[in-house]
Write a structure and sequence with these properties.
Radius of gyration: 18 Å
Low-confidence stretches: 1-47
Helix content: 10-25%
Mean pLDDT: 81
Length: 268
């Protein structure tokens, strides 16, 4: 069985205040990073044939996750750009039935593992078995949020991920990461929408990197991601776009937040 689900996804330890993004800089490691990738090896294999899904539904859902795995293989082999990964994986999930996806992964069973979180999200990681053996690892997990709770605004290094709404409604905001500066990151707002079941957004270092999900109702997000791209560690940077300084051209200079606790207190 998987280890106990954790609340939110980041380790609660401070970053070096004002540290710029640079080669060799080791920022806050995320559970979605190398440590989670290694830990997933200890998870029980969770197959798409589990649960109450009918065979046709299982095949349809299997095709969607298989498309994500193949896009991840192409990305790992340098045949696909991160932004093309975003487009392909979003398209695959948007073309599927949200009910088929939910039943195929047996979301009701997964939700029994989710502990209520006072702030932020309860996170339920699960692993998938694919026909044809192992391929590039894709990390899959559920984020379970009560109405009014949020996954606070943050940026990632060396990661691609897609966030698919299984249940509920979320206000989703994304920003391009224009440049890193001491003490903050300069952002360009790109997405500010309400998403419902079957809708998705995604991130990469190249597009919509900073993201922020607020649950308008009780809701569940399905995340599909690849970490440690090109062998570089996946790090996370917590930000405060609300207190950002307005710059020319619609840009924002958002200050960094030093700890998960502060981010959850302000936004979770």
């Amino acid at each position: 069985m998987p280890s106990e689900p954790r609340t939110f996804v980041l380790r609660d330890r401070p970053t070096a205040a004002g540290a710029p993004r640079a080669e060799g800089h080791v920022g806050r490691r995320v559970v979605m990073g190398a440590c989670l990738t290694a830990a997933l090896g200890a998870l029980a294999r969770y197959t798409l044939s589990a649960g109450s899904a009918a065979p046709a539904e299982r095949r349809a859902a299997e095709n969607v996750f298989q498309a994500a795995r193949e896009a991840s293989r192409a990305l790992a082999e340098g045949r696909l750009s991160p932004t093309t990964w975003q487009e392909l994986v979003e398209r695959a999930f948007r073309g599927a039935s949200v009910e088929e996806i939910a039943r195929a992964i047996d979301v009701e069973s997964l939700l029994t593992r989710a502990r209520a979180a006072a702030r932020g999200a309860a996170v339920v990681p699960f692993a998938l078995s694919f026909p044809g053996g192992e391929g590039p690892r894709i990390v899959t997990k559920l984020f379970v949020l009560r109405a009014g709770r949020a996954n606070p605004p943050h940026a990632h290094d060396n990661m691609v991920s897609m966030h698919y709404v299984l249940r509920g409604r979320f206000r989703v905001r994304h920003y391009d990461r224009v440049r890193d500066e001491p003490g903050g990151i300069v952002l360009r707002p790109t997405i500010d929408r309400i998403l419902g079941p079957g809708e998705a957004t995604s991130i990469s270092d190249e597009r919509d990197n900073v993201h922020w999900h607020v649950a308008e109702t009780d809701g569940v997000l399905l995340d599909v991601l690849c970490v440690d791209l090109e062998g570089r560690p996946t790090d996370t940077h917590l930000l405060d776009p609300v207190r950002a300084e307005a710059l020319e051209g619609g840009l924002l200079r958002a200050p960094r937040l030093p700890t998960v606790g502060e981010a959850l207190e302000r936004f979770g």
